[in-house]
Write the C-alpha cells for this entry.
Amino acid sequence: MTNIVLCGQGAMGKVIEQEAQTYDGIHLAGFVSPRNGQYGEAFGKVDVVIDFSNPANLDFLIDYAARKNAALLICTTGYSEAEKEKIREAGRRIPVILSSNTSVGINVVRKMLKLIVNELNSFDIDIIERHHNKKKDSPSGTAKTLAEDIMKATGRDHVETHAMRAGTIPGEHTVIFSGNDEMIEIKHTAFSKKIFARGALEIALKLSRRPAGYYETEDMFEVDNMDSGRIINIA
C-alpha cells in the first residue's frame, strides 16, 4: 500500500481525493499545508507527497517530504528558474518531479515532438493553448514545457505561444508546424481534470519506488514495441 499525502485542497485536490478511492494500492493518508505554521493532518508513514497548491509553498514541501523521507510530485506551475533549481537540488535527498502536466497524452506528445521536430526545423512552429477563464497563468505551464522541449531539440531561442482563456475549457494544446504549402498539427485535448488526477496518481506510485533523484515526467512513461503496434505504458 502506498501512502499519499496531498498539498492543495482546491479543485484538483478534490478530484485526486475522489480518484484515489478507485485504486486498491493507494491510501490517502491526509492533507498538509503551511497555513498557520502547521503541517495539517497526515498520520503514519508517508510514501509520496502530491502538490497542486501554490509556488509559495515550495520550501515547506521540500522540508516536509525530506523529513518524511517521501517522494515529492510537484504539479504546481509558475516557478522561477531559481525555484526550479531548488527543486532539482532536492533530488539529492528524495525522489522528486516537477510536472507541468501529468496526463499520459501530453507526455506522449512530448515524445512525439522530440522525434520529429528536427525534421521540421525549417517550418514555422507555433503553440496555441486554450484553458478555462479562471486559469491564472498565461501561457500555461504545459505550453512552456512544450516550447522548452522544441527549443532544446532544435537550438531555437524562441517558440511563439498563443494563449486563450474562455468558458470552462479544461485544457487544449496544439503545436502547429507551418511550411511552404503544407501544415502539420499535433493536438491534445483534455475533457476533464480526471486525466490529470489519474496521471498524477500513477506517476506518484512509480516515483515512490525510485531512489533519490530529480526525474522528468516523461521518465515515468515508456514506449514499447509490440507485434500489434506501439503502445504507451507507465514505466
